[in-house]
């Protein structure tokens, strides 16, 4: 019998992989991909809770649909920015950007 | 009562702002352009300001104290307070961008539209009582800001700022949403009051408590408090100054709007004084120590902003009606003073291209109005008497003492005294300098924003009662309802 707890474990694993990716990636594009994993972990978690809890709150499912759209917008913006940056300076590695500090 | 007509009537201010943004984009397509010249850009700004003023009028006329969409949005005194503050911020930011926006980006209409949509997002955040709608509206405030930072062309510092802000938004949003999903799983609801009740009743499983901690990351990012404050100095320094002004006021106040609402709804259920107090002390100390050694004026204001977030959290930690009213008063005072300081910075950077503290030396003789406005803003941020900042600090610190948090009041007072060092160093630079520098010119619009801001700092500082009453009424109504 698969319960909400199983889904939570799966989603937690997915989230941790994403977090690991964010903390380790040196390329801005890789960070964006890792963040996608984290957002999908969130979606998985929400759907699992919404479906397995007896009440089936429709608001959670509606929110997941909105989140998919928002994640798409976020990635679109991120890619546009990263592409624009790499065109102007040939740097997409994050640690190439270290002028501002102190 | 719950038809579309009702929703349009109640959300009229927000809808007007969103539609004005769309209108500006369309107008950009039809306005005539001559080679290199774009006379219509002033009209775009005028249209944006008109839309914001119309939204302000609508905010006064819209029916108060209703809830929408199954109780996930609340239109009440608190949301109206923030509507007016955010509209004021939007008008000020557009007013101080008009003369320079075409110099750092070719996309003038997009710039105004994004400022308007971000303002609408800020206003919506102040309405949300459900975490799902809150998360959506937070995106509506963050995404336009990423695009605004990305609009700046041919400036390597702006490029770096945009990339850093993008990465911080992505990570903090993911942490916030992950926390939200855990809290929802633990409580079965996204309603702020319901979650507070579950946490207070001790029925919140460990997973839900962990979720609340994750969500804190998202909030701390918005208000630039510890532990998510590290991005602010880099982004504030690199971004175009007008965008920095918007970021430092609008985005931060949106974060506090949701903190105030969450706390007001959970005030009788949760005791968070110790946790928030610790964050407040950490933010104040870190911000002030960081600001002491800064030479770049924008970077210094970023660290000052982190410290200011700490002072505001002192009032939040008091978790009482007095504390929350003091927080609202402080937010308005901070918005006026910080926007005023950045107006002078924008005007100075536009005229000279310089942004080091040393470059400001002798400004009192080179441009008396700008020097006076900046000195007034900094003294208000420092909390010297006769300014609105003094009353704000006084109310916030007193509210913490009233709640028995004497250690917190003491830490805050020590920090406020420490902060005099860097605020007054700049005022000293402005007024006491023997070096001869050229006159610094400024545009009439900048002068107008400065005069209005300086009047606000002094007049509300001398007569704080009406604003404090308004804040008090908004908070009492929220807690009683």
Question: Characteristics of this structure?
Answer:
heterodimer; A: 102 residues; mainly alpha; Helix Hairpins; 3 helices; 76% helix; elongated; B: 481 residues; two-stranded antiparallel sheet; 21 helices; 78% helix; 1% strand; globular
Brief overview:
Chain A is an all-alpha fold and 102 residues long.
Word description of this protein:
The complex is a heterodimer of chains A (102) and B (481). Chain A has 102 residues and is mainly alpha-helical. Chain A is built from three helices and no strands. Chain A has helices at 4-24, 28-52, 58-89. The radius of gyration of chain A is 17 Å and the shape is elongated. Chain B is an all-alpha fold. Chain B is built from 21 helices and two strands. Chain B has helices at 4-10, 12-30, 41-61, 77-97, 101-104, 108-125, 131-151, 156-187, 192-200, 206-223, 231-238, 241-266, 273-292, 297-318, 321-352, 363-366, 368-382, 388-402, 406-431, 444-462, 465-480; strands spanning 66-68, 73-75. In chain B, helix 18 packs antiparallel against helix 19. Chain B starts with a helix and ends with a helix. The chains are: A mainly alpha (102), B mainly alpha (481). The A-B interface holds A 4, 8, 11, 15, 18, 22, 28, 31-32, 35, 38-39, 41-42, 45-46, 48-49, 53, 55, 57, 59-60, 62-63, 66-67, 70, 73-74, 77-78, 80-82, 84-85, 88-89, 94, 97, 99-102 and B 70, 72, 130, 132, 135-136, 139, 143, 146-147, 150, 154, 156-157, 159-164, 166-167, 169-171, 173-174, 177-178, 180-182, 184-185, 188-190, 207, 233-234, 237-238, 294, 299.
Draw up the topology in text.
The complex is a heterodimer of chains A (102) and B (481).
Chain A: H1 4-24, H2 28-52, H3 58-89
Chain B: H1 4-10, H2 12-30, H3 41-61, E1 66-68, E2 73-75, H4 77-97, H5 101-104, H6 108-125, H7 131-151, H8 156-187, H9 192-200, H10 206-223, H11 231-238, H12 241-266, H13 273-292, H14 297-318, H15 321-352, H16 363-366, H17 368-382, H18 388-402, H19 406-431, H20 444-462, H21 465-480
Antiparallel strand pairs in B: 1-2
Helix pairs in contact in B: 2-3, 2-6, 3-4, 3-6, 4-6, 4-12, 4-15, 6-7, 6-12, 7-8, 7-12, 8-10, 8-11, 10-12, 11-12, 11-14, 12-14, 12-15, 13-14, 13-19, 14-15, 14-18, 14-19, 15-17, 15-18, 15-20, 15-21, 17-19, 17-20, 18-19, 18-20
